[in-house]
Amino acid sequence: MRLAAVDIGSNAIRLQITNVTQYEGIINFKKLEYLRFPLRLGMDVFHTQKISDKNRLKFIKLMKAFKLLIDLYEVDDYMVCGTSALRESINGKEIVEEIFHDLGLVINIIDGNQEAELINMALGSYIDEKSYLHIDVGGGSTELNIYTHKQKIASKSFKIGSVRALDDMIPLSVWRSMNDFISENIDKKSKITCIGTGGNINKIFELSKPSKNKRYLDFGKINEVLNYLESFTYEERINKLNLNPDRADVIIPASKIYLAAMAAAESKKMIVPDVGLKDGLMQVLYKRNKHKKPL
Questions:
Q1: 33, 17 contact by CB (below 8 A)
Q2: At residue 294, does pLDDT exceed 70?
Q3: In a domain, 53, yes or no
Q4: Per-residue pLDDT at 223 exceeds 80
Q5: 8 Å CB contact between 15 and 66
Q6: How confident is the model at residue 293 (pLDDT cuts 50, 70, 90)?
Q7: Which of 57, 105, 186, 267 has its CA 20 to 30 A from that of 205?
C-alpha cells in the first residue's frame, strides 16, 4: 500500500510518499519520497491577506508536480492539508477550487485545532503518565497541547509563528494570551516536560550536536544554540552554517517562541521526536485504508 501526505505550510510545502508493508504481523512504514519546497505563502498573507499572483502561479505549478509524483508512484490514497496561510488568505479557497477543477487534487484547509489533532496522532509513543506540553511552531501559528496521564486536557492555536515574527507582526496581547493559557492549564507542582515539533526545532536539535540516541534538549541548550545563531549574519548562517535561505531567517524567531512557551511552563526539558503534520496525515491514511491488505 502506498500513501501520500502533503503539508502546505506558511514557510514551506512538503510531500511525503510512504510504502506500507506487513511481515509476520508487523506493519512497517517505509519512506519512498520526501520533498520540501520553500514557497513562503505566509509572507504574502500576513502582510496583504492574500496570496500574490506570483506565488499563486508557483503554488499551482508545485501542486501539478506533486500530483504527477502521486500518480507516478501509483499511490492508493492521499491527503493534502493547508494551514495558516491558506486558511487566512482571502483567495485561498478560490485557488484550492481552481486546483481541484484543473488537476482533480483535493486540498483540505484545516483550522488550528485540526492541525494540532493531526500532529498529536504521531506523538502517541512519546506520551506516558507524566505531564507534557506539546509545542508545534509553524510559520503562521503555534499549536499548544497539554497532556496529563495520557489524556489531553487543553489545546489551543495561537497566531504566533516564525514568519509572522520576522516583521514583529505579533501583538503583545497574543503573547500574553499564550502565556496565560499555559499558566492556567498546567499544574506547576508537577514537573512539565515539553515536546517540540516543527522544522526549526529539528534544526536546532541538529545544531546542538546531540549525543548518540539522545532525542531531547534542555532549556539552556536551546538558548545556547539561539545565541550561537544570533552571532552570525543572515548570509553567514546560509554560507557558514549551511542553512537553507528560508530557514536561516525564521530559525531565530522560532527558537524564541519555543523558549517563551517553555519559560511559561517552567519546563527545563524538551523531547524532539522529529514528527509533524505529515506523520499525522499518514496515521489517518493508514487507519482509513488498513482494511486493505498491505503488500
A1: yes
A2: no
A3: yes
A4: yes
A5: yes
A6: low
A7: 186
